[in-house]
Amino acid sequence: MNQFLPHLSLLLLAAVFTAVKPSDLTASESTAAVSRFQEYLRIDTAQPSPDYAKAAAFITSQAESIGLESQTLELVAGKPLVLLKWPGKKSSLPSLLLNSHTDVVPFETDKWAHHPFSAAIDSSGRIYARGSQDMKCVGMQYLEAIRLLKKAGFSPDRDIYITFVPDEEIGGHAGVEVFVKSEIFKKLNIGLVLDEGLASPGAEYRLFYGERSPWWTVIRSKGAPGHGAKLYDGSAMENLLKSIEAIKRFRTAQFDLVKAGVKAEGDVVSINFVYLKAGTPTPTGFVMNLQPSEAEVGLDIRVPPSADPEALERRLAEEWAPSSRNLTYEFKQKVPVVDIYGKPAVTVADNSNPWWSLLGEAVKKAGGKLGKPEIFPASTDARYFRELGIPAFGFSPMANTPILLHDHNEVYFLFFPFLLGRAYVLHKTISCLPTKQKLYLKTPERNQLP
Ligand SMILES: [Zn+2]
């Protein structure tokens, strides 16, 4: 890292005068922020055995240096959730929650140019680390933005909470899922959540207002066993393959809509075959002259909020797993497509939602532009908030950056728009949102402001 420091400082300085207003931070402050970011990235929080204690200690020490209240909740043993608070002047107003997860996905070290926990910075200003995009950069931007705002003497009207949560990468069951059910959460009176989005290879920032619901499904087939040389109807494999063909036709039709540009990826039902299981095993392989009596297939189905879930399940029961062909199905996971009020679990992303207008305005004021709002193609913790009817936007402010989350050589571009350039976007976003005192969110009528 040291050999790049002088070079990096120049890049940072250049970025200060292009992406960020010079008055907001100095070059030495930028360098210090990058060092803090690196320190966070170097903590091994990879699943399946993340060092949560170290991450919690780091966040707590950061909160202390910024002057934020902090508490570490252990709603599930060994899974600390750090809750920070920046008290507002009008605590009765619904608060803002800035959420990020501390865990990251595993990696294959030998496929990386630098060790995934080195946080090494190359000569082009790319910082290599697992979690650099997903989503330690966002967590650090919250803190750096608040640090800047505090330095500028800003104090919010609303209470602002910042959460660093465990286990998002394995479903959030011991993280946000239990947190939103806790008494502590209910008392926070959250009006809006900002959570993670995706990097944008183009100049526009991406913003997500909903996500597809995973329906992890297993279809099992039964049939008469028989000699491998005999042709007969109704074997388990034949029954299952008929279903697989029907599912493939549906998958192709959905995919064609995306390829033709008619629908975005997040707006179609995606289906992928994740495993096939059949055959009678032997010590060296499988019996080759026997047709098995059972077979099964695993499907990762993702259902967009715009889909008709009942029609889809009917198709599953009648066409893909009909009992008439000795097929059954089981959901390993089935996340509801609607919220607790029975409405599609999405946050309104047009000017009828004042939070949306404010966010767009704030990004514009910071010199950025939001792209068309999107449905997140996979799952994030934001679904637990939306399920309760709480507005939540997925927003990882990274423009001009390739999408490398969960990939080898996950990198974050420090030089343009670098960490604080993006923190600046967030800074403006935060400073804009809570100062609009007239906004009062009546729960549970989400997005309805007087
Ligand atoms: Zn993530």
UniProtKB/TrEMBL annotation:
User: Which Pfam families does the UniProt entry name for this protein?
Assistant: Peptidase_M20 (PF01546)
Signal peptide from the UniProt entry: 1-22
Extract one GO BP annotation from the record.
amino acid metabolic process
User: A single GO molecular function, which one?
Assistant: aminoacylase activity
Q: Where does Zn(2+) 2 bind?
A: D134, E169, H406
| Chain positions recorded as Zn(2+) 1 binding sites | H101, D134, E196
Report the cofactors. Zn(2+)
The record, for SUPFAM superfamilies, names: Bacterial exopeptidase dimerisation domain (SSF55031), Zn-dependent exopeptidases (SSF53187)
Active site per UniProt: D103, E168 (proton acceptor)
User: Which keywords appear in this protein's UniProt record, sorted alphabetically?
Assistant: Cytoplasm, Hydrolase, Metal-binding, Signal, Zinc
Quote the protein name from its UniProt record. N-acyl-aliphatic-L-amino acid amidohydrolase
Q: Locate the coiled-coil region(s) and give their ranges.
A: none
State which Enzyme Commission number(s) the record gives: 3.5.1.14
Record note on cofactor? Binds 2 Zn(2+) ions per subunit.
Regions crossing the membrane:
none
Q: What is the lineage of its organism?
A: Eukaryota, Viridiplantae, Streptophyta, Embryophyta, Tracheophyta
Alphabetical GO CC annotations of the entry are: cytoplasm
Q: Where in the cell is it found?
A: Cytoplasm
